[in-house]
Amino acid sequence: MEQTDSDAAPPTLGVGMIGYAFMGAAHSQGWRTAARVFDLPLRPVLAAVAGRDAVAVRAAADRHGWAAAETDWRALVARDDVQLVDICTPGDSHAEIAIAALEAGKHVLCEKPLANSVAEAEAMAAAAERARDRGQLAMVGFNYRRVPAIAYARRLIAEGRIGALRHVRVTYLQDWLVDPDFPLTWRLEREHAGSGALGDLGAHIVDLAQFLAGEPLVGVSAQLETFVRERPLLAGASAGLSASGGTGRGSVTVDDAAVFTGRLASGALATFEASRMAPGRKNALRLEINGERGSVAFDLERLNELLFHDHAEPAVTAGFRRILVTEADHPYLEAWWPPGHALGYEHTFAHQARDLVVAIAAGVQPVPSFADGLQVQRVLAAVEESAGKNAVYTPVPVLEPVPARAQV
Predict the structure, then answer these.
(1) pTM greater than 0.70
(2) How far apart are CA 212 and CA 223, in angstroms?
(3) Which candidate, 156, 165, 315, 402, has a CA 20 to 30 Å from the CA of 89?
(4) Residue 26: which residues within 8 A CB-CB, separation 6 or more?
(5) Cα separations (Å) of 223 from 260, 380, 392?
(6) ω into residue 368 within 30 of 0, thus cis?
(7) Which strand (E) or helix (H) includes residue 109?
(8) With contact defined as beta carbons under 8 Å apart, do 172 and 284 qualify?
(9) Does pLDDT of 132 surpass 70?
């Protein structure tokens, strides 16, 4: 049968990924899946993956479906078959890689947090702004925005269903560091991770608070704590382990937990807790937002559900009601399964890939942008500053927002 224009396959978008561990596997799943589920204007092609260990990166390429493997990220950026660079490395390399990729004329997806410092994030946001003028686009990988229930909560709040905001409270708790003999990985070294639970988990909940509220945090008051200050070193260095290697014990140079309050631009109050030392909590992200007319609540362990309370209902029947977010007119659900057939964590990365590909094809700024990532970085820096001054209230510099016409 002769192929018509309407039958023609969409143009391809060559993707190159740097880093192949936990986030690399999740991003690979998203890139493999997006075009098989959604009708995309560009078809992502897994062109190449890069990592320092030649044997391990080749094995990762074979496992996750990447056509080629590189041991130097610069070689990946220089490849002609790569139009988008996906950065899944520790935070200390984000700025160098992202800026180089943008200057090489590539689109960029960078895992959160955007950088390890405000200065690095500022440089990345500036590079992204210059690149946008040339047609290259950049996005930060805050995947929890792409949970359908969270995206639907944002819609309800934006439509005014709960009225003016009063309270935002978010917690993100894990327990993988409870054992004091858990080894010193790069996530526990400030020079590689930037911060601990604050940047790893706190970046997510700060972004979610600002995303759902539709406004920035303008000040915080915080406390940080490191409960286990030394951990075992492992001989040699390998993916996910301490960069220093050796035997004995080494110093933990990041926080184990962060607790802080904040104020949004509208005056609404916010509370946050991020910990990797909460026994029994594996990946417990929970949020609740209260407004003058109602509330929404979400629990990642029940990620297909959103709780909604309309305070205008009669008191005798009012209360939180469970919305099963699996209908075709819920965010992202038009392409998935019949109602009631649940989605999971991995689907957020397919949604992330979809949104980025659609934005690139349309030539509009995807969100969250690098400017959004910089705003989160400013909040994290204010949290650290406040904690260093024993919870003194610390203002957060607020960026000018990206023009609405440029967002998708």
Answers:
(1) yes
(2) 24
(3) 402
(4) 143, 345, 346, 349
(5) 6, 12, 9
(6) yes
(7) strand 107-111
(8) yes
(9) yes
CA-to-CA distance for 264 and 258, rounded, in angstroms? Answer: 19
- Spatial CA neighbour of 33 closest among 258, 253, 357: 357
Tell me how far the alpha carbon of residue 372 is from its chain's centroid: 11
The kind and range of the H/E element at 218 are strand 217-225
Q: 116-134 burial, b for 16+ CB within 10 Å, e for fewer?
A: bbbebbbbbbebbbebbee
pLDDT tens digits for range 197-236: 999 999 999 999 999 999 999 999 999 999 999 999 976 5
Task: Give the residue with greater pLDDT, 399 vs 180.
Answer: 180
3-class SS at 351?
Answer: helix
Q: What is the CA radius of gyration of the chain?
A: 21
Q: Is the pLDDT of residue 119 over 80?
A: yes
Residues 91, 141: Cα–Cα separation, whole Å = 13
Side-chain half-sphere exposure of 30, counting CA atoms within 13 A:
27
φ/ψ of 14, rounded to 5, equals: -75, 125
